Amino acid sequence: MSRALLVLVAALLVCLSVSLFGENLIASRYAYYYDILITIGINVILATSLNLVNGYTGQFSLGHAGFMAVGAYASASWSNHLDPYLLASIGGANSPFATNVAFLISMLLAGSLAAIAGFAVGVPSLRLKGDYLAIATLGFGEIIRVAILNTDFLGASRGLSVAGSYTNLFWTYGSVAICVYVVLGLVHSTYGRGFLTVRDDEVAAEAMGINTTKYKVMAFVVASFFAGIAGALYAHFKAFLTPEGFNFFRSVDVVVFVILGGMGSTIGVIIAAIMLTLLPELLRALAHTQFVPPAYQGLLENRLILYSLLLITLMLTRPQGLFGDPVAIRKRFTRSRGN
Q: Per residue in 227-248, pLDDT tens?
């Protein structure tokens, strides 16, 4: 067994232990912090998966919220309509085994449908480059949102209640561990070399006979799959979905995680996702203290203004992100030692 697989197994066991022995305590006594923990896990999955497309493959996708929406509504629809029959056949709604099996099936369905959507969008749109690709993926995300908004089966503008609050620390952080493992495994494989080649010089890669569309579509499909998983976790945690929860600003949030952390740096985007999930909560708490005048409380609570200021400052001072490309950093460090 490889070291990476051992680390994955160990991480899953830790997640299982925490979920079994500490979940009820944290969820009951510290519900606010429990909500933040689950949100952090979902955001880390979204950021890590998008980094495979935007960071390692060098594309620019603005449609990640659309794939998350596909996963969320697919998982919710499965649970609402088919879980009663599935649970009745394998032990009932009160059986932990039955509910976890049902949730696993709905998560896999969510990821699979999101991956199919990613393939359907990726094949035609990933022949585009730069701004044109960003506009195409943005359009896809809006098409998904508007389609849900006008589909009565999915709740339309009323929203959709989700049966079963299955999301917990094990499923959330177990999915985080698997997502990081898959992304890093791909990046350090033969396909990963293809991703990096497409990112560094797509024209040169095509001149060498590399099928750049194949690598871009593969990265897109994998990223879409994990966005669908994140959507399933979100659906079964919030227990209520609205199309506005997957709008353009949701995609921008995930892009900000990737840019702030440093495109091409997995650890960077994970840290950025954690920081930017915690920061609005810290500022919200700070806004209601006696140290902040009432006139400035709204400014501290508005995350869009905060994100804009962060991006402007970052682009002026450190355009490669807080952590940048680890390969480039390692090369610079080696070169400086050699000198």
A: 999 999 999 999 999 999 898 8
